[in-house]
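May I ask you to review the protein record following this short note?
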Amino acid sequence: MSEHAPSPPPPVDPVRRPPRRLAIREDSPLMSVATFFGSAIIFAGTIWLLILMHNRVGWAITVIAPIALGAVVAAMMRRAPGVLSAIAAVAGAFGLVVLFLAGTATLLCLVTAMASAAGGAVIGVHVAGSWNAWAPLALQRLGGWFLAALVLLPFPVHYFEFARGAEPLRRVVTSRTIAAQPASVWAAVRTYDEIATPPPWQFSLGLPRPLGTEGPLAEVGDVQRCRYTRGEVTKRLNIRAPESELTFEITRQEKLFKRSGRLARGSFLLAPAPGGATTLTLVSEYEPLLFPRAYWCWFEDWAGSALHEFILDDIERRALGTPPAPALAKRPR
């Protein structure tokens, strides 16, 4: 038998290694930064689009959008729930600040909305955590679809919430007894637009500052145009009963409180009080545009009562002939 030398093995092509891809760990600082800014932009963009749909604030903006924000943060990162909650809350606040800088909301509305954004974001983090912990495996595989549905949910909710039309008018009523005769109080009555004393600095947080008026409110049917730092309104005098009642209605409202409420009418009601005094009652009526009402009504009550108290202070000072308080005479810089 002849022995044959073993044939050499066939040449082997060099192994092509796959190109290296940039891998970002879910708990890395880079992922945290990307998640923070990405979720904040999604949150701000969602609110902006909702406001374009209906020029109002409702459940979709106050509650559902922050929950979706928290769920997005929890889905993109792997960290402790407390850390996720903090990142989501700060991202929501950052998104609201962006909207404020774009002129979408006043400073007081911004501060008020931050509380709901932070609370909703924390809830969203726990909603996503509960889904991963308790949902069946078959449903967990649909986690991406669940997250997408949660992000898109504010849009149909916002549409159907405000498809019903106008809301019933709401009233803010404030009374004060002034130690002066009705004739003196009536002569001292001034609307907010006609008060020369600068308002307190706190008003700059959410209330506009009057810049001037055009036309008097002396006779029934008179029309007055009032200009503010953020818009203007037009009033028409409906009732003028000396020493008893002065009522006007808002016939036009441009930019002023455009996402907070629609002003309807205002009244000054005078009634004799014991000891020669006069009870003066201010009534403001408006259509609210901020929902849910249980969350926003305290803000509106505070703003309306603060405005009424400022007007009553000026009327009482005029009726009693006392000079303005030094704290109100100079506007802080």
About this structure: The radius of gyration is 30 Å.
